[in-house]
Amino acid sequence: MSRRKRIGIMGGTFNPVHMVHLILAENAYRTWQLDEIMMLPNGDPPHKTDIKITPAADRLAMLKLAVKDIPYFRVSEMEVNRQGYSYSSVTLEELKKNHPDTDYYFIMGADSVFQIETWHDPATVMADCIILAATRDHTPAEKLRAQIDYLKEKYKADIRLLDIPDLELSSSEIRKRVSGHQPIRFMVPDAVLEYIEDHQLYLH
């Protein structure tokens, strides 16, 4: 009997993709012996209404450049191509329906473990995937463990911890640095840096 396929899901706006995204995905791939990492950029994320989102075509192009030489990373356009808001619950239901032989590992930051009940249909999200929560030194361990125990009790959630280097870097910081004409080399892959410069993104 062959084992079920294991696919990690790394969602986000990727505005732009940066090195910590890739390090987190790589750690999940190695730690949980996944077959593949699906990079899943949002189309129209419902929780980002107060932020100007770079067009999906640019975010998608940068993500493809970032992972083009990594054979086990794949970029999915599922949510980009979906009309209206992008909901993780809808995506997971669609994936489970089309690939019943696959287990999905949803990679998220520890902060999302505290926010997940505010997501659209959180019960479906927690029923349809294994959650890999990335821990950092600044996340209080006892508080996180208590929240995981609560979600396991209420939703029967399968939540596992994923250790990552405590690297502080965010897409918003990169956008701010670009608009302030500060260097971002080594914060993003070289191909992404060239794309940002060539298309004059994040200058305003």
Summarize the structure.
This protein has 204 residues and is of the alpha/beta class. Helix content is 42%, strand content 18%. It is built from nine helices and six strands, in the order βαβαβααβααβαβαα.
Shape, principal axes of CA atoms: globular
* Ends apart, CA distance between termini: 56 Å
Give the strand order, joined by hyphens, for the main sheet: 3-2-1-4-5-6
- SS summary, helix count: 9
The percent range for strand residues is 15-25%
Give the SSE order as H and E letters: EHEHEHHEHHEHEHH
- The biggest beta sheet, please? 6 strands, parallel
Mean pLDDT: 92
Q: Total strand count, please? A: 6
- Low-confidence runs (pLDDT<50, min 5 residues)? none
Helix content range: 40-55%
SS-derived structural category:
alpha/beta
Rg from Cα: 17 Å
General description of the model:
The model has no long low-confidence stretch (mean pLDDT 92). The protein is globular and about 50 Å long. It is α/β, with parallel strands linked by helices and 204 residues long. α2 runs antiparallel to α9 (190-198) and α4 (88-98) packs parallel to α6. It is 42% helix and 18% strand. The protein has helices spanning 19-31, 56-67, 78-81, 88-98, 110-115, 122-128, 141-155, 171-179, 190-198; strands spanning 5-12, 36-41, 73-75, 102-109, 130-135, 158-163. It has a six-stranded parallel β-sheet with strand order 3-2-1-4-5-6, sandwiched between helices.
